[in-house]
Each structure stands twice: as C-alpha cells, then as structure tokens.
Amino acid sequence: MTDQQRVTLTVNGTQRSADVDPRTLLSDFLRHELGLTGTHVGCEHGVCGACTVMFDGQAVRSCLMLAVQAEAHHIETVEGLAQGETDLHPLQQAFWETHGLQCGFCTAGIMMTMIPFLRDNPDPGEHEIREALSGNLCRCTGYQHIVEAVQLAATRLATAK
Amino acid sequence: MKPAPFKYLSPKSLEQALEMVRDEGPDAKLLAGGQSLIPAMNFRLLQPSALIDLNQIPSLSYIRPDGKGGLRIGAMTRQSSVEHDLLVREVSPLLHQTMPRIAHRQIRNRGTMGGSLVHADPAAELPVVATALRCQFKLRSLEGERWVAAQDFFVGMFTTVTGPNEILEEIAIEPTPPRTGWAFLEVARRSGDYAMAGVAAMLSLDADGRMSDARLVYLNVGDGPVETPEAVARLIGLPPEDETFAEAARIASETEIMPFGNIHATPEYQRHLAEVLTRRALAQAAERAQV
C-alpha cells in the first residue's frame, strides 16, 4: 500500500484535516472522512453530476478529483448552504416551494452547480438554465420543476441585492 | 469503483516534473485536469504506478499574446479560462465558439487545454479545432524542446507523437488570416455528450471572392482528427456556392471519413451527419469570410 498523506483544506469555511490514501477521491473524502454525506456519489465517472461541489468557487465533480489535490483549497458542499434547520438558502427554499425534487439524490449536485451559475448569471433565461443543468441527471422530475425553482431563486436573489 | 493504489507525486516546477517522468518510468501517468484519466482509473481501465500531478505548477497556466497577433496558451490552462478569455475570442473565434461544446461546465472548470490534446480522444473537440487552426505544440523534455504541428501530432486513437520523456508545455495559435471564415458544428444525443459527428471548417477567399484555402477536420469519424483533402481540393479556385459545398460534403462523407459506429449512431448515420454538417459549416464559414 501507498503511504497515507495528511490533507488540510477548508470546507464550508472551517479548516479540516485527515490522513488519506492518495487514491481517495474527494467525494469519498467528504463523505467518509469528514462525514459530509450530503454530497452524493452516483456514477463515479463524471456523467451524473450528483457529486458536484464548489472548488475555490467553481462547480466541479468531486468524484473526478483526488482528496490530496484539495490540499489548501476551499471546498463548499450542500451542508454549507442553509444557515440553520429552518433558515434555508434561497435556492433551497425555491426547490422546496416549487417541488424541485422528488427522491433528492441529484439535488445537492444541482444546488452546487446552480449557485455559481446564478452568481455569474443573475438573470438567466430558461434556455440558459437548461444548458447549465445539462451536466446533472435527474430521473424523477423531468426537470420542469427544477427550472422553475432556479427561476424563482434567481428572482429572489436579485431582489435581495 | 475506486482507483487502484498509486504513488502520488506533486512537482512544483516543469523541470521537477520531467525528472519524475524520467525516474518513474513508463507506468507513471501525468495528471492534468483528470476529467478523462480519473474516470479511467475509477473503472480500473488504467492502473498507473504513479501519478505526477501537474496542478501545482502555476507557470503552466496562462493565455498571452505572442506579439505577432497570435497567442500562446499554457498546457495546464483550464478549459473554462480559455472559454471566457477575451484575447482568445478576438484572435481565435473558432476556438472561442467551440469551448462551450466541450462536455459540461463542471468538466471545463477542471479540464485543461493540454490534457485534452494529449489524451487525443477521437471524439474530443480540442484536437479537431487545433488541427483546423494548424496550432503548434511545444513539447518539453530534459534534453530540450521541440515544436510539432497539430496535423503531425495526432497519430491514432488516444495516441500522439509525445515521447515517454516529454511533456506538452504550450500551444501556439496563429491569428486568423484576413478574408477567412470558420465554423464548428457537432451533433450529440444530449447536450454535453460525446458528439456522434462534428466538423471544424476554415475557409479563405481571395481578392476575387474565390476559395483559396480550406480545411475540414472531423471528430468521432475515425481514429483521430480526420482531414478530407479530396473534399478540400474540390473547393479551391471556385466561388463559395451551395452546389460546390454539397459536392465537397458528399466526397468527404462518402469516401474520406471512416466512422466506426457506436451505440448512439450507425456508421451510415454518422456519414449522413457529416454530410449535412459539412454543407452547413462551409456555408457559415463562407459567410464569415465575406465580412
């Protein structure tokens, strides 16, 4: 076996450390070492988008990165969105209200894709939203309610500014 | 699935990386963006003995003018950086417009320019566009450097001329010549999927409005970027007209490309797509050349 390596990174604003095998994927590191099981693991080859997290502010597939590559970087996961149990992020609130999820497996990845998308495109059209969602598979909703949720969140985030 | 164990190395300079490449031997792999390598390792299609991670070498990530109207892109520059760069948009509109067609945003945020080129997937956009643009690639080894033209770089499926002790350092792109138009078109079952067929076209007009130079380069219809010299020869010296484009498209799609077919498309359907896309791409390129 290869030697374990110490990884220190910032997750949702908090510095975290753990010893890992170099072959540990970032997705497994978040779930198994840090206990952040909100990040889901679907296909493990970059197609489904369920494991999407923010890496230094950009959406990436955490199953296509090694944990050791996140050394000294900033990761944000779905656990960092809500301020409290009842104080949801506007995007989460919009998903709740418009029924933007059913089983919820894809939802965390969609959130972490849509947050940087709405940051960079505060007033997106429907086509842009669908294009931005194209890297996240949802097998329950048919996407219609997800698009509505993103539109609602965009409106509220714009008003809040 | 998870990757098999490997030794992880994180060089801080290109020189150090080259020494590691020499010391680790042929079973080691270079890790760029990892958007193709890591899935292949997750599936255990690849089990490298060591990974030499190039992500800690900031000097490999840049986009800068070459002082002669063209530009230079460092091999580790992220695809999303190329996509949003204003200089790229100005110097190479073909490259600029092709970038969003590569996979998904999450992949482009991590995937690199050089990684995609050296991976040389026949279905990838960048090898095709680099060939259409006649880009030059700088390969670095401990012995020195050499430049290879894109049209000589790709030699087969997932294979380039890059030697075992070489690392792609930089991509050089010439400015688009005057009276030259361009187009990139592809068809995929779903947005972001590998395309069933695609084509990059470059078309130059002379002072009389006749076609003086052209390039047609195809993706996923052969074992690398596929050029169609007979179809191009059919264009040269003629005015840009639909019947001429249709004839070139017929030659390219019927006799010059070699589609293998896959679960998404039969070879016949790929030929059909290539024929339609060629006509459209040439018409678009001709229109842009006349501006």
What is the element layout, followed by pairings?
The complex is a heterodimer of chains A (161) and B (291).
Chain A: E1 5-11, E2 14-20, H1 26-33, E3 52-55, E4 58-61, E5 74-76, H2 90-98, H3 107-120, H4 126-132, H5 144-160
Parallel strand pairs in A: 1-5
Antiparallel strand pairs in A: 1-2, 3-4, 3-5
Helix pairs in contact in A: 2-5
Chain B: E1 7-9, H1 14-24, E2 28-31, H2 37-42, E3 50-53, E4 63-65, E5 71-74, H3 79-83, H4 86-91, H5 93-98, H6 105-108, H7 113-119, H8 125-132, E6 136-141, E7 144-149, H9 150-153, E8 154-156, E9 159-160, E10 167-173, E11 180-187, E12 197-205, E13 211-219, E14 226-227, H10 229-235, H11 242-256, H12 267-289
Parallel strand pairs in B: 1-3, 2-3
Antiparallel strand pairs in B: 4-5, 5-10, 6-7, 6-10, 8-9, 11-12, 12-13, 13-14
Which characteristics define this entry?
heterodimer, A: 161 residues, alpha+beta, Ubiquitin-like (UB roll), DNA polymerase, domain 1, 2 domains, 5-stranded mixed beta sheet, 5 helices, 5 strands, B: 291 residues, Uridine Diphospho-n-acetylenolpyruvylglucosamine Reductase, domain 2, Uridine Diphospho-n-acetylenolpyruvylglucosamine Reductase, domain 3, Enolase-like, domain 1, 3 domains, 5-stranded antiparallel beta sheet, 4-stranded antiparallel beta sheet, globular
Written description of the protein model:
The complex is a heterodimer of chains A (161) and B (291). Chain A has 161 residues and is an alpha+beta fold. Chain A has two domains: 5-80, Ubiquitin-like (UB roll) (Roll), CATH 3.10.20.30; 90-160, DNA polymerase, domain 1, CATH 1.10.150.120. Helix content of chain A is 34%, strand content 16%. Chain A has a five-stranded mixed beta sheet with strand order 2-1-5-3-4, with helices on both faces. In chain A, helix 2 (90-98) packs antiparallel against helix 5. The radius of gyration of chain A is 16 Å and the shape is globular. Chain B folds into three domains: 7-53, Uridine Diphospho-n-acetylenolpyruvylglucosamine Reductase, domain 2, CATH 3.30.43; 62-173, 2-Layer Sandwich (Uridine Diphospho-n-acetylenolpyruvylglucosamine Reductase, domain 3); 180-289, Enolase-like, domain 1, CATH 3.30.390.50. In chain B, the strands form four sheets. Chain B has a five-stranded antiparallel beta sheet. Chain B has a four-stranded antiparallel beta sheet with strand order 11-12-13-14, sandwiched between helices. Classes of the chains: A alpha+beta (161), B alpha+beta (291). The A-B interface holds A 1-2, 5, 21-23, 25, 28, 44-46, 49, 52, 55, 58-61, 63-66, 68-69, 113, 117, 131-132, 134-135 and B 1-8, 10, 34-35, 38-39, 42-43, 51, 53, 55, 80, 103-107, 109-110, 190-192.
